[in-house]
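Note on ligand handling. Small-molecule inputs were canonicalized before submission; formal charges were left as drawn, and no protonation-state enumeration was performed. Where a ligand contained multiple stereocentres, the stereochemistry in the source SMILES was retained. For flavin mononucleotide, this procedure yielded the string shown in the input block below.
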Amino acid sequence: MSRQIRLNAFTMNCVVHLAPGQWTAENDRSVDYLKTGHWVELARLLERGLFDSLFLGDITGIYDVAGGSPEIALRTAAQVPMNDPAPLIPLLAHATEHLGFGVTLSVSYEHPYLLARRLTTLDHLSEGRVAWNIVTSYLDSGARSLGRDALAAHDARYDRADEYLDVCYALWEGSWEDGAVVRDRTTGVYADPARIHPVQHAGEHLRTDGVFQCEPSPQRTPLLFQAGGSDRGTRFAARHAECIFVGAPTAAGLRRTVDRLREALRQEGRDPASVRIFAMFTVIVDETEALAQARHDAYRARVSYDGALALLSGWTGIDLSRYAPDDTLAYVDTNAGQSALASFSKLDPSRTWTVRDAVEFVGIGGRGGVAVGDARQVADTLQAWMDETGIDGFNLASVEMPRTFEDIVTHLVPELQRRGVYKTAYEPGTLREKLGGESARLQAPHVGAAFRHQNDGHESDLRANDNPAS
Ligand SMILES: Cc1cc2nc3c(=O)[nH]c(=O)nc-3n(C[C@H](O)[C@H](O)[C@H](O)COP(=O)(O)O)c2cc1C
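Structure output:
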């Protein structure tokens, strides 16, 4: 039987996500990102299309690498202005029943105690439908805005992130035992203090000493997503991620990334098939191939080259405005996102990219593949990418908001269902269970499961510093 294709919608709480220039079209609703009704309608549309989740990217800082200033990004709205994604989630959870919500939160600028509390709150209010996209942040402008001299070194960001995750696991899994919440109206006891444990951690980067402030949410640890593809990022993903988000413009390049990730999972002692890998992708689908092509041509004509240049320069950390458009992109290690530059250089040696090629490519859908056609053609392409690369599904970006997602729900989803490669109903349970997890909670051999309090169901005699985060 053909493998099931999973779909998430990939967007950000802003005007321009991965399609600079498109907001200027009369029918495009991207500027409505400030309105609650816009988001509620989008979430309901995605749920009608049985998407697994609305995946919200986020960045800290603005794109000021191109031209050495924020001018281009501000003028073209290239991921600025950008609102906070997290407050959307309770609103959208209330408007839907099954749709999951991926939220990007950086580990670089806030203490894990606060971030863990925010995610627990979201997991409660969505009844277990939250995923966390763990990022370490790659913009120097963000570091400076938050009072740092500069962005921390690339691999050091991941080292600190490893410790950060250990503190989060201890808070989510180890502080409150199952059964600690008694809620006994007769005795007036809400929680049993004997079953609630302070987390004591004094590590290289982080310290905490205290009881977690929140009672356990349905998933405790939210479903964990990660998206960094450098060598160090891949090791981080292999240790923590339950879902991995990758982006490469060609199937051959993507295959290399996926193979590397599955191998890293094996080395980490995890079943490589237990982690779901999603590829960034853009679909332009319509009733006929001619209609889809015409739409694609119109989109191409509207791409803001400057906006795309600002994005790609920010992702790679290289000011591409300083190069001639016909210069070839070559790989160098940078302190920003290493995998972004690799996508357009060393990842697929069969293809060379000039600066212009890469910027124009990024103008529709970022670093991911693009499929244009009628439903059968697009379904063929998605199935071919699944087979060729070994991914589990796609994070689909929009070009025209919300038309791209409307067309997917109207044309593509029924075609995938007819082929038996797409669900016809949601699975019950939390987001982790809907995505194939055996339980709402993290399970061994995932590293986070080891932080669970071992004494569930019995009188506690554990000292807090028995906790593995100590
Ligand atoms: C598909 C994809 C999506 C990403 N989305 C975000 C995001 O929303 N916010 C963010 O700060 N970083 C995002 N990143 C960047 C990564 O989290 C990471 O910081 C960056 O790729 C640098 O790490 P690397 O050198 O290991 O690739 C994304 C990366 C990829 C590949």
